[in-house]
TrEMBL record, chain A:
The lineage of its organism: Bacteria, Pseudomonadati, Pseudomonadota, Gammaproteobacteria, Oceanospirillales. Gene3D superfamilies: Periplasmic binding protein-like II (3.40.190.10). It holds the Pfam family PBP_like_2. Residues 25-250 form the PBP domain. Residues 1-23 form the signal peptide. This is Solute-binding protein. Keywords: Signal. InterPro entries: ABC-Tungstate_binding (IPR052738), PBP_domain (IPR024370). SUPFAM superfamilies: Periplasmic binding protein-like II (SSF53850).
TrEMBL record, chain B:
It comes from Halomonas alimentaria. PANTHER family: PERMEASE COMPONENT OF TUNGSTATE ABC TRANSPORTER. The lineage of its organism: Bacteria, Pseudomonadati, Pseudomonadota, Gammaproteobacteria, Oceanospirillales. One of its GO terms (biological process) is transmembrane transport. This is ABC transporter permease subunit. The chain crosses the membrane at residues 33-54, 61-85, 97-119, 148-165, 203-225.
């Protein structure tokens, strides 16, 4: 019995050691808190190897909603932040958590809906009109409802359209972009998505892109430098290199080169 | 969409192709869950036995609490461990958030109550059966613990397997404390969530089939060990 106990303890020891070893290789890394849209579209798989190849710095992406990404960064759990909520990003800097914010790239939001388009939004001239048509038809609309960048943008659009998004037709799902699209497909609902996630999404069922192109649907992504004063333990030097690379000609080129099914999903626009 | 049959083909391709990314994910899943279950076993079995043998004020409260914790939602366990290990939290200095170690801690929190609570029940039944013999041997309660655990070992294997089932199946806790980082903290369940969110349902279901196969393998191993020792006992 003692013999067996010793074998068990040795096995645990080996597991523990191998785990410690795993934690040590790739010493040069930063943790990046970012949004689900950048991860799920495959952008990071395309651009991060280029950055790592040049600098030797590994970038570990924690992809969550923008609200959660801010919270992770506020608590000092991420070295860098790449999100899409300019209002929130500016507040983050104003509160002293960030020292710098820069435009990196943009794409746009699109309205997806069932192929029959029961609310008839495909002919709308503006996003405000499209949303009003959905509300008038009381057609099911699936909202992220998770305080993500997309969710915040959607709520601002309803407000701008002068429509109170409330009632049985307006369904707050409280989940990420992909799960929301899955659910919308299941209940033939309208849904607002960032273009990148939509194009890369593989389970559209009856859903189609019905409305796009209004300037109000512009979706800006920004990179933030986190305050060294506030969180001295973070890898500010490495994170700074990542931030600079994103804004550099090389980084901007890498973003522009990323395509899914031949379609460019993010448009670099650093100044 | 032919996703239902596609999943089995995908699962088969994943296994036969020995995709290195998949192997990494499988290895990490096993590493995290087995470590968590091993630690929970080391702590939980003696703890359960002690609760079965000693009576003290608050004993009942502790037993009920332990039983209730078996139903702890993984996402709540993950959130607690996240707040503990976050830089702003009490153990933030260790820098363990978003590492496999953090995932082990979170799964330990989930599995420990299961193993301790079920072990307590098994040992208590055994103790009632053998109380007189054990007392006549003059064993102290502390000395009874290893004896009773050893005698209950066949039943305790199932207890440990229940713990392993919980650890390998949960996604809420490891998602929060691990962050689902590609190549670092991505395990089977978080990979399944990610592929589902991408809408790649055949791949997600394929990964699910692989995970189920792995859990079946571990259970088959435990079954064989149990059968062998049962035969030895006659």
């Amino acid at each position: 019995m003692q013999h067996k106990a010793r074998i068990a303890l040795t096995a645990i020891g080996i597991l523990g050691l191998s785990m410690a070893a795993q934690a040590q290789d790739g010493e040069q890394y930063i943790t990046l808190a970012s949004t689900t849209s950048t991860e799920a579209s495959g952008l990071f798989d395309s651009i991060i190897p280029k950055f790592t190849g040049k600098t030797g710095i590994e970038v570990r992406v924690v992809a969550v909603g923008t609200g959660q990404a801010f919270e992770i960064a506020r608590r000092g759990d991420a070295d860098s932040l790449l999100v899409h909520d300019t209002v929130g990003e500016e507040a983050f800097v104003a509160e002293g958590y960030g020292t710098e914010r820069a435009d990196v790239m943009y794409n746009d939001f699109v309205i997806i809906g069932p192929d029959g388009d029961p609310a008839g939004i495909a002919d709308a001239d503006t996003i405000a009109e499209a949303l009003q048509l959905i509300a008038e038809a009381q057609a099911p609309f699936a909202s992220r409802g998770d305080d993500s960048g997309t969710n915040r943008a959607e709520l601002r659009l309803w407000e701008a359209a002068g429509v109170e998004a409330d009632g049985e037709w307006y369904r707050e799902l409280g989940s990420g972009m992909g799960p929301t699209l899955n659910t919308a497909a299941g209940m033939d609902a309208y849904v607002m998505s960032d273009r990148a996630t939509w194009v890369a999404f593989e389970n559209p069922q009856n859903l189609e892109l019905l409305f796009e192109g209004d300037e109000a649907l512009f979706n800006q992504y920004g990179s933030l430098v986190i305050s060294e004063e506030r969180h001295p333990h973070l890898k500010h030097d490495l994170a700074g290199q990542w931030h600079q690379w994103l804004l550099s000609e090389e980084g901007q080129q890498a973003i522009g080169d990323f395509t899914v099914n031949g379609q460019q999903l993010f448009f670099p626009n650093a100044e | 969409m032919p996703s239902d049959s596609g999943a089995f083909v995908t699962a088969l391709n994943l296994i036969l192709g020995l995709d290195p990314d998949l192997l990494n994910i499988v290895a990490l899943s096993l590493q995290v869950s087995l470590t968590a279950v091993a630690l929970a076993t080391l702590i939980g079995l003696p703890l359960g036995a002690a609760l079965a043998l000693w009576r003290f004020p608050g004993h009942g409260v502790l037993v009920v609490a332990l039983n209730a914790l078996m139903g702890l939602p993984p996402v709540v366990a993950g959130l607690c461990v996240y707040l503990l290990l976050s830089r702003a939290g009490p153990l933030g200095e260790l820098g363990l958030l978003f590492t496999p170690t953090a995932m082990v801690v979170a799964q330990l929190v989930l599995v420990l109550p299961i193993i301790a609570a079920l072990a307590r029940q098994q040992v208590e039944e055994l103790h009632q059966e053998y109380r007189e013999q054990l007392t006549s041997l003059g064993l102290s309660r502390l000395r009874m613990i290893p004896t009773l655990l050893w005698d209950a070992r066949l039943g305790l294997v199932t207890v440990v397997l229940a713990g392993f089932g919980r650890a390998s199946a949960e996604v809420g806790a490891v998602m929060i404390v691990g962050g689902n980082i590609d190549g670092v903290t991505r395990v089977m369940t978080t990979a399944i969530v990610l592929e589902t969110s991408k809408g790649d349902l055949p791949l997600a279901l394929g990964l699910g089939i692989v995970l189920l196969g792995l859990v079946a393998l571990v259970n088959a191993g435990a079954y064989l060990v149990g059968e062998t020792s049962r035969r030895k006992l006659g």
